[in-house]
């Protein structure tokens, strides 16, 4: 079986400008939603109490709401979670009340209202823990960005490092944009997924960059644009198959992983879909705009005449 | 060209065998068991307890699969829950003669069913996180400022005593937060006081200044000493928590330090959060009272008369009754430290207590008046008191340093000191994070995580085999080996597997296939360009290697950053992620090449490679015109 029967190099870079404009627009839209709507942060970040209660029959949300309201708790969110029988209750942090007791109190009231209520999960997080988590998340993001840039500039060249990072932050911001737009819950596992996407997406860029470097060595007569086109074309089959396999795993997580892994898998799905696009059109294009050329990658390349093992040495294509 | 030397196959074989052995324990499941652990610090669970348990089971006619001594608990594994329940009753009856005052906790538990030879190889199943088995998680914050204030308070008293002993006149000692201020009328006394401070209080640093007409000396705890106070407070709180949690009979509690001032407590299987919280927050108290030595009390001790009015009857640890007056002289609040040691003259094992200033003063007054009498040190837990020791007062004890001696071994002295210290918390704690996960949710999470890995794995394998035929099969086998090695390494490290960890496993499998796709596509490309079969395989692996290395290193950077800064679920994800990258490098490149070499390497005249369709552009297709 062979999916990719490509006769000639596909001129990806000829359309780079259009795609970059598209990227910029989606990116700006994501930033806009991030600022206008903000992320729907989970209890882990905001602090507060989260309770997951399950009933034997579809739960009466209004009854749950009124029961909780009777306890004198304000700003309580009640919603279905997973199935109609599962209810998620979020209580904000309250001053003066030891929130550890809150969950016990609420549970007792719910049981009194409907005896079939069963506690499945409660979570209480103090506000200072939430602040620390947010700070740690940002630290992790920063160290990932710095680490990857350092590695890429040592292994390749600074222009590639800059291009890869811009492309991948673009993916990250777009995932965040989705979470802001749909007001999906942004929890710690989602943060892990976002950072995993960053690494995963860099993977893609690295594979293409690797090929660009190799092509610069092999095809001396091509210009930069042709080199990039050829590199993307010859790796496109691998890019799509790899993404396809990873997507299969993530899809399996989305379908069978249940409510707990739902947003985690969703973040990965978006990340993978955008990763394929950004490494082809964003990373390579930015590298091109930054003006990469043969001399950047092949140090002292002029001295070394030909690679005797290279079947294409000296060939003109 | 495509041959591996024998040693490389040996490595592969060893890796496979080790992988299988350490993965195996995960498949045996769990068997019902009974666990015996100590309630009190003074009670030891050791090999004699194990022998005792074995004897009890034998007389009851109950056959245990295995009886093991594991750390400080004895565990007996049974074939079914019926025997387990009978065994629990039998052991409970034998080991706990007095249910009102138990020395042991006998609890039901689940143990891995893996055979003893695996356990002997230190092969254990993965430790499942709370989200997979259900239970309670607490994060407690220790109030370090309170610990430091307490220390400053006791130092204030000590300074006052020292200055008085040396006849240095001051015009007032005050504690202001965590600093101690001492005022003097003239410079000489200030100098004298500074000398004493320098001499006797190594933990303090001081600054002096002119304050109006007075001289003021401001002393504060040195940063090094403050750090020591904090680590000690944390350690003591952890010890106290250990003692309290023991009573819950939880099978594998996790009590560990997190950061400088936090303690994480995880109680797998516990559902009753209210009780858990109650026990975590309970305070044990220490009390010092006088022994009632009236003749009525003596008679009551012998059991021949009623306990006199104003006195109470308590038991000593040996079971000897002691009649103690109700009036409390000192409580644990006045005790700042308890350390085991030896008497310099008699070489007897002793326990050295340090009291704060108020305690020291009361103690001196009481001991002066009661030389020759007995004093009892009582520990109250669960509202029930026990006499730790009841020594005879030999002389007046001043200075707040008290020595308890009397027929103790060094071991007993250590235990008593620990008991006295662990009775109360060094600093108050509050719960800042709490998670409870129901057992059914845990089981559901396992099933869901397992399903997503299985179905995803099956889909990828089918695709690889269809698309790349034999090479796809090789890739699939190496993917399975990757999973095997990953589980083996996780079990070996006894890393905690959580739901995000299972998600990471699924993601790692998806990403690990990348190495094989890169190789397979490269081999195809070489074949398309007209390379011979052997050369194409060789070049495919060679050329793909650099790319695989680069992409894995970048992923590794992400994993390590997550590991460094992450906590909770992020950490669980990162551990599996990082290990998965490492195992996938081994299986995706080294192992899969081994398979290919084994299959194709020996064929000298290899014509075709089974790697699916190699599409070639038609050679006679019209070439782009000039």
Automatic annotation (TrEMBL), chain A:
PANTHER family: PROTEIN TRANSLOCASE SUBUNIT SECF, PROTEIN-EXPORT MEMBRANE PROTEIN SEC
Domain Protein export membrane protein SecD/SecF C-terminal: 106-291
One GO MF term: protein-transporting ATPase activity
Task performed by this protein: Part of the Sec protein translocase complex. Interacts with the SecYEG preprotein conducting channel. SecDF uses the proton motive force (PMF) to complete protein translocation after the ATP-dependent function of SecA.
Membrane topology: Multi-pass membrane protein
One annotated Gene Ontology cellular component of this protein: plasma membrane
Organism domain of life: Bacteria
Subunit (UniProt): Forms a complex with SecD. Part of the essential Sec protein translocation apparatus which comprises SecA, SecYEG and auxiliary proteins SecDF-YajC and YidC.
Family named by the database record: Belongs to the SecD/SecF family. SecF subfamily.
One GO term of the biological process aspect: intracellular protein transmembrane transport
Subcellular location as annotated: Cell inner membrane; Cell membrane
Ribosomal protein keyword on record: no
Name this polypeptide is given: Protein-export membrane protein SecF
Chain ranges passing through the membrane: 12-35, 137-154, 161-184, 190-212, 248-266, 272-292
Keyword terms: Cell inner membrane, Cell membrane, Membrane, Protein transport, Translocation, Transmembrane, Transmembrane helix, Transport
Pfam families listed in its UniProt record: Sec_GG, SecD_SecF_C
Main location: membrane
Annotated source species: Albidiferax ferrireducens (strain ATCC BAA-621 / DSM 15236 / T118)
From TrEMBL, chain B:
Subcellular location, principal: membrane
Keyword Cell inner membrane: yes
Every SecD export protein N-terminal TM domain range: 1-108
Protein name stated in the entry: Protein translocase subunit SecD
Transmembrane segments annotated in the record for this chain: 7-28, 453-470, 477-495, 544-566, 572-596
Domain SecDF P1 head subdomain: start-end pairs: 317-427
Compartment list: Cell inner membrane; Cell membrane
Biological process, per Gene Ontology: intracellular protein transmembrane transport; protein targeting; protein transport by the Sec complex
Signal peptide: none
Start and end residues of each Protein translocase subunit SecDF P1 domain: 234-293
Role: Part of the Sec protein translocase complex. Interacts with the SecYEG preprotein conducting channel. SecDF uses the proton motive force (PMF) to complete protein translocation after the ATP-dependent function of SecA.
Domain Protein export membrane protein SecD/SecF C-terminal positions: 428-599
Keyword DNA repair found: no
Family assignment from sequence similarity: Belongs to the SecD/SecF family. SecD subfamily.
Pfam families referenced in this protein's UniProt entry, alphabetically: Sec_GG, SecD-TM1, SecD_1st, SecD_SecF_C, SecDF_P1_head
Coiled coil regions, renumbered to chain: none
Membrane topology value: Multi-pass membrane protein
Keyword annotations of the record: Cell inner membrane, Cell membrane, Membrane, Protein transport, Translocation, Transmembrane, Transmembrane helix, Transport
GO cellular component, one term: plasma membrane
Subunit structure: Forms a complex with SecF. Part of the essential Sec protein translocation apparatus which comprises SecA, SecYEG and auxiliary proteins SecDF-YajC and YidC.
Molecular-function annotations in GO: protein-transporting ATPase activity
Top-level taxon of the source organism: Bacteria
């Amino acid at each position: 079986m062979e999916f990719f029967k490509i006769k000639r190099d596909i001129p990806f870079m000829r359309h780079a400008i259009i795609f970059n404009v598209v990227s910029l627009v989606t990116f700006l839209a994501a930033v806009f939603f991030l600022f206008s709507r903000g992320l729907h942060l989970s209890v882990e970040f905001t602090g507060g109490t989260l309770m997951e209660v399950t009933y034997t029959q579809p739960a009466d949300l209004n009854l749950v709401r009124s029961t909780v309201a009777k306890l004198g708790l304000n700003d309580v969110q009640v919603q279905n979670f997973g199935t109609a029988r599962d209810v998620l209750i979020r209580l904000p942090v309250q001053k003066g009340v030891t929130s550890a007791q809150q969950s016990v109190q609420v549970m007792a009231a719910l049981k009194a209202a409907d005896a079939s209520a069963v506690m499945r999960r409660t979570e209480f997080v103090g506000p200072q823990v939430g602040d620390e988590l947010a700070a740690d998340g940002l630290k992790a993001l920063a160290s990932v960005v710095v680490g990857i840039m350092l590695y890429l500039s040592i292994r390749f060249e600074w222009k590639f490092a800059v291009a890869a990072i811009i492309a991948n932050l673009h993916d990250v911001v777009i995932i965040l944009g989705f979470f802001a737009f749909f007001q999906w819950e942004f929890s710690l596992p989602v943060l892990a997924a976002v950072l995993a996407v960053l690494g995963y997406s860099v993977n893609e860029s690295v594979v293409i960059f690797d090929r660009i470097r190799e092509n610069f060595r092999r095809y001396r007569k091509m210009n930069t644009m042709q080199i990039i086109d050829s590199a993307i074309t010859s790796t496109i089959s691998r890019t799509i198959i790899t993404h396809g396999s990873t997507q299969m795993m993530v899809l399996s997580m989305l379908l069978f992983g249940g409510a707990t892994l739902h947003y985690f898998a969703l973040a990965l799905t978006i990340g993978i879909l955008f990763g394929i696009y950004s490494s082809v059109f964003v990373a390579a294009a930015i590298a091109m705009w930054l003006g990469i050329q043969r001399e950047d990658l092949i140090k002292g390349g002029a001295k070394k005449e030909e690679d005797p093992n290279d079947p294409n040495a000296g060939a003109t294509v | 060209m495509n041959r591996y030397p024998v040693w490389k196959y040996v490595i592969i074989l060893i890796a496979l065998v080790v992988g299988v052995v350490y993965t195996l324990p995960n498949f045996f499941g769990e068997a019902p068991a009974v666990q015996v652990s100590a309630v009190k610090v003074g009670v030891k669970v050791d090999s004699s307890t194990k022998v005792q348990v074995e004897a009890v089971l034998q007389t009851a006619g109950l056959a245990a699969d295995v009886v093991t001594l594991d750390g400080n608990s004895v565990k007996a594994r049974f074939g079914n829950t019926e025997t387990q329940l009978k065994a629990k009753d039998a052991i409970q009856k034998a080991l706990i003669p007095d249910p009102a005052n138990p020395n042991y906790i006998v609890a039901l538990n689940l143990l891995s069913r893996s055979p003893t030879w695996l356990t002997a190889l230190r092969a254990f199943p993965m430790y499942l996180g709370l989200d997979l088995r259900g239970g309670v998680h607490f994060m407690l914050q220790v109030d370090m400022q309170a610990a430091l204030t307490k220390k400053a308070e006791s130092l204030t008293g000590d300074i006052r005593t020292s200055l008085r002993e040396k006849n240095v006149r001051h015009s007032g000692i005050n504690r202001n937060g965590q600093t101690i201020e001492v005022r003097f009328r003239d410079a000489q006394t200030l100098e004298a006081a500074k000398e004493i401070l320098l001499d006797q209080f190594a933990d303090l640093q001081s600054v002096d200044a002119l304050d109006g007409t007075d001289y003021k000396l401001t002393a504060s705890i040195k940063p090094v000493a403050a750090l020591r106070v904090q680590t000690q407070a944390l350690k003591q709180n952890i010890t106290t928590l250990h003692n309290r949690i023991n009573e819950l009979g939880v099978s594998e509690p996790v009590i560990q330090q997190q950061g400088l001032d936090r303690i994480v407590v995880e109680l797998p299987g516990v559902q009753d959060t209210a009780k858990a919280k109650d026990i975590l927050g309970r305070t044990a108290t220490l009390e010092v009272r006088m022994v009632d030595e009236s003749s009525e009390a003596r008679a009551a001790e012998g059991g021949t008369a009623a306990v006199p009015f104003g006195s109470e009857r308590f038991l000593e640890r040996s079971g000897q009754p002691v009649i103690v007056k109700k009036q409390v002289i000192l409580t644990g609040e006045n005790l700042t430290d308890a350390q085991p040691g030896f008497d310099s003259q008699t070489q007897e094992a002793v326990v050295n207590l340090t009291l704060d200033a108020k305690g020291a003063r009361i103690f001196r007054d009481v001991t002066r008046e009661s030389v020759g009498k007995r004093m009892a040190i009582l520990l109250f837990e669960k509202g029930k008191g026990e006499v730790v020791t009841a020594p005879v007062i030999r002389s007046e004890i001043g200075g707040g340093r008290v020595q308890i001696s009397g027929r103790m071994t060094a071991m007993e002295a250590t235990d008593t000191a620990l008991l006295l210290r662990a009775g109360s918390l060094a600093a108050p704690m509050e719960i800042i994070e709490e998670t409870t996960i129901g057992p059914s949710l845990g089981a559901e999470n396992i099933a869901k995580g397992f399903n997503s890995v299985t179905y995803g794995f099956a889909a990828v394998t089918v695709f690889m085999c269809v698309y790349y035929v034999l090479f796809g099969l090789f890739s699939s086998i190496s993917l399975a080996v990757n999973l095997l090695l990953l589980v083996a390494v996780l079990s070996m490290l006894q890393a905690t597997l959580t739901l995000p960890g299972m998600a990471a496993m699924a993601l790692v499998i998806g990403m690990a296939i990348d190495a094989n796709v890169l190789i397979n596509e490269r081999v195809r490309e070489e074949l398309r360009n007209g390379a011979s079969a052997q050369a194409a395989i060789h070049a495919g692996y060679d050329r793909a290697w650099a790319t695989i290395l680069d992409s894995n290193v970048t992923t590794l950077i992400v994993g390590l950053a997550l590991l460094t800064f992450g906590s909770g679920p992020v950490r669980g994800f990162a551990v599996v992620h990082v290990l998965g990258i490492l195992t996938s490098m081994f299986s995706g490149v080294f192992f899969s090449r081994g398979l290919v070499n084994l299959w194709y390497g020996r064929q000298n005249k290899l014509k075709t490679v089974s790697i699916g369709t190699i599409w070639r552009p038609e050679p006679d297709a019209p070439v782009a015109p000039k």
